[in-house]
Every structure is written in C-alpha cells, then in structure tokens.
Write a structure and sequence with these properties.
There is one protein chain. With 444 residues, the protein is α/β, with parallel strands linked by helices. The protein folds into three domains: 200 residues; 92 residues, Beta Barrel (Elongation Factor Tu (Ef-tu), domain 3), CATH 2.40.30.10; 132 residues, Nucleotide-binding domain of ferredoxin-NADP reductase (FNR) module (Rossmann fold, 3-Layer(aba) Sandwich), CATH 3.40.50.80. It contains 15 helices and eleven strands. The chain has a six-stranded antiparallel sheet with strand order 4-3-6-1-2-5. Strands 9-8-7-10-11 form a five-stranded parallel sheet, with helices on both faces. Strand 8, helix 13 and strand 9 form a beta-alpha-beta unit. Helix 1 packs antiparallel against helix 2, helix 1 runs antiparallel to helix 8 and helix 5 packs antiparallel against helix 7. The longest helix has 33 residues.
C-alpha cells in the first residue's frame, strides 16, 4: 500500500509525555534543591514551596511551547487533536502552579520588603499570562465568532503569540534568581528556555515559509451551506507527496477577505492528487472563504493526523461513522483505490436531509456498485420512500445489523463532539474494545 505510515503509538506517546511533563520538571526541581543544598525536611517551608511551584511552572510553561510547535517527532506518535487537548489541560495545571508561586513570593516580598528587578520580570510575566489565559481558552475551544466584524478567532490567535513574550520574561526571571547561582543551573535554565522558545519561533516564522505553495483554482457549491475548494500545487512538496488519505493540514489563504491565519481542514481528496477541502459555512472565517477569488495563493502545512486506515494491517476491515461534514476524512479514504483494495469498508453517515448527501455523491456511486457498504440516516427530513421512516442518528441496533462482528472491526468516528461521544458509548456497549475506536476532534 502506498504512503504507508505508522499510526498512533501508545508507548511512544507515553514516553514523550513523561519526559515533557514529569521527568524534566521533577529533574529540574531536584537539581535546584541539590544545587542549593536544601534539606528535604525543609520542603514545606513557604520559600521552598514557592520555589517548587516556580521551578515546576517554568518547565511546564516551556514544554507548552514545544507541544504547540507541531514538531514532527511528536506528531508521529501523538495526533494533533490530542496535543491540542493536552495543551489546554496542562495550561490549567500551569495556571495553578503560577498562582501558588506568585502568592507565596508576594507574601515573602511583603514580609521582607524590597521589589527587585528579578521579581519585576516575574510579575510582568504573570500579568501577561493572566490577561492571555482566558483568550487562550477561547482559541482552544474554537468559539464561534460573532456575526459581522473581524473574527475574534483571528485576533485571539495573534494575541496568543504574546505568550512567547511572557516565556522570555520568565527565562530572565529564573536566570536572575539568587537560587540560580551555579553554572549547571544557569546552563540548564537557559538551554531549555532557548530550545522551547526556539521551537515556537521556528513554528511561527520559519515553518510558514517552508509550507507547500498552492493556488485556489475552483470553488463549487455542494449544498446550500457547503462548498468544495480545489487547489493546484506548484511543486512536488513533501507535504503533498507524503500525505495519506484521511489526514489534514493547515491552510492559510493569502486574502484579506477571510484573514491570513492558518486553519485546519481535512484534505478531502485521495492521496497522490492535488488537495481539496469541503467546508461548511458556519462561522465568519468559513463564510468568508466563499468570497476568496480564484487564483488566490494558499499555503499548506501538513500532513498531520493518524485518523486513517493506512495504519491498519492489509486486509483488516474498517468501519467509518460520520456525522454531517465529518464525512470529509472518509471521503478522502474511501475514494482512494489503494484503501478500498486493502480494507473492506463499512460506512454509516448521519446527515440532516437528502440535500446534504450531495456533499459526497461519489460515495453513493461506490455503494451502488458494491465496492463499499454504506448506510445513510437522516436526522431532520428523509426522502420519499425512506425504508425505515425513522429520523435520528444511526441506532445501536442498525450498527449491529450492518456488520457481522462489530467487536472485530476498527471503528473511525468523526463528527460533532456530542455525536462522537454518543457513538463511542454505543460501540463500547456492543463490546468493542476502546483501543479499536478512533476519533478525531471535530471543530468549526
């Protein structure tokens, strides 16, 4: 099978997470205590507690820049949507550590007096973090913008970059600390800080210049609120030649109509061809895309994701469950002849009405020819002569009847979060092991 690529590795992901969020923070904190010759009996004194919280916060904060920089060696074992969730979770842990460190240090300053240059750098970093953290939550949750005006998402993404300034202030703050007196501590502090911030600078300034160059050459309506965007590539870029059907990438349109910030979209075309995306217009950015003129330059950063049957052994059956526009990764995979030859495919697709079926018309042709097994259910209105007459997503019984042994299949689910959670629960109730259920975060 072409473009073979390893899928999610639980062992590899565990190793990376342990290093970034346990080994490094605890190791750095231990180095601090050894270097300053503190007694273990004094761990719970206010100064030592503030230092423990501070050193842990420093390492976790720097790890956040590494996690958010789309580094290939990390993405190979941890999918990007999982990294996004991890980024948000550790951000909340970081906020708690920063709060403990700041409050205890503030109490010590009041007790002993004197605001130093070192504490001023730290206080400014905490202020920036406190201002940006709520905005970061909006970005991570993908909050839909208000209608009209500039998209808050676009502005929040740019403000989010100010975390790098806070990171630089924190590096200086730690270097100036009296407890960072030895050269091993200074070198460790500076090295990890520069490496982490360097990965983020590379991600923001160098990576976009190395992205694949595309040109938008066609925009076609597939439904009242869904459009297909097709691109032509200008070279055989690695991002295009290494792509596997079902993966996604970050598209940046060089147009003032929709803004230039990159947005993630699943590539709806099979591997080996020019990219195309299918987009539902339900936000300021996606609505603005319909006004982007043909011929607009586009940058493509990718491919990313493990949501593909390419990671399965050849001959292993695959079952896809899609909700609405969540059909796009399956559209890519099912239209790939290599995937169809390698894996028997069963597809369940929940859509609002018959009009939405036009989004993936080629799949109906494959189903009619017997190349795939496809079941479409309607949630709002069904066509005349609909066999079951029932409206709603695929039921537990319908799924069970469509396959002989559901527990032996690998299931791929993509759709709105509530839909995905409900389908996971149904599959678990049928006896499908959790390791056989794969899902991809669905966001606007």
């Amino acid at each position: 099978m072409k473009n073979e690529k390893k899928g999610f590795s639980a062992g590899g992901s565990t190793t990376i997470l342990l290093i970034l969020y346990l080994v490094l923070p605890l190791g750095f904190t231990s180095l601090y205590f050894i270097g300053n010759m503190y007694s273990p009996l004094a761990l719970f004194e206010s100064y030592n507690l503030s230092m423990i919280a501070g050193t842990l916060a420093y390492m976790v904060f720097m790890s956040q820049f590494v996690i958010s920089s789309r580094m290939r060696f990390i993405e190979r074992v941890i999918p990007q949507d999982r990294l996004l969730s991890l980024h948000g979770l550790t951000g909340m842990i970081l906020a708690g550590l920063v709060l403990v460190h700041f409050i205890m240090k503030y109490v010590l300053v009041l007790r002993y007096g004197g605001v130093t240059l070192q504490s001023a750098f730290g206080a400014l970093a905490v202020f920036i973090y406190a201002v940006l953290a709520p905005l970061a939550i909006l970005v991570l949750r993908g909050r839909k913008p208000r209608k009209g005006g500039s998209p808050p998402y676009e502005k929040n993404r740019k403000r989010h970059n100010l975390f790098a300034l806070a990171g630089l202030l924190v590096v200086v703050h730690v270097l100036l600390a009296s407890s960072t007196w030895s050269w091993p501590l200074k070198i460790t502090t500076l090295a990890w800080g520069l490496f982490s911030l360097g990965t983020y600078v590379r991600h923001k300034m160098i990576r976009p210049r190395r992205a694949a160059s595309l040109v938008l050459f066609d925009v076609s309506p597939l439904a009242s609120d869904v459009h297909q965007y097709r691109f032509k590539s200008e070279s055989d870029h690695r991002a295009l030649t290494e792509r596997v059907s079902g993966q996604f990438g970050y598209f940046s349109f060089e147009s003032e109509v929709c803004g230039t910030e990159s947005h993630p979209f699943t590539v709806a075309a099979p591997a080996g061809g020019d990219p195309e995306i299918v987009v539902r217009s339900d936000g300021d950015f996606t609505r603005g895309l319909t006004g982007v003129p043909v011929g607009t330059p586009v940058r493509f950063d990718g491919p990313y994701g493990h949501f593909t049957p390419a990671s399965l052994r050849e001959g292993a059956p695959a079952a896809f469950i899609a909700g609405g526009i969540g059909i796009t990764p399956f559209l890519s995979a099912v239209m790939d002849e290599d995937v169809r030859r390698a894996h028997p495919i069963t597809l369940h697709w929940s859509i609002r009405s018959p009009e939405d079926e036009s989004v993936a018309a080629p799949l109906r042709e494959l189903a009619d020819s017997g190349e795939i097994s496809m079941k479409v259910v309607y949630t709002r209105s069904a066509p005349e002569g609909h066999v079951t007459g029932r409206l709603g997503r695929a039921s537990l019984e319908e799924i069970r009847q469509s396959v002989a042994s559901p527990e032996d299949l690998t299931w791929f689910i993509c759709g709105p979060s509530e839909f995905t959670s409900a389908m996971k629960d149904d599959l678990l109730a049928m006896g499908v092991k959790r390791r056989r259920i794969r899902s991809e975060r669905f966001s606007w």
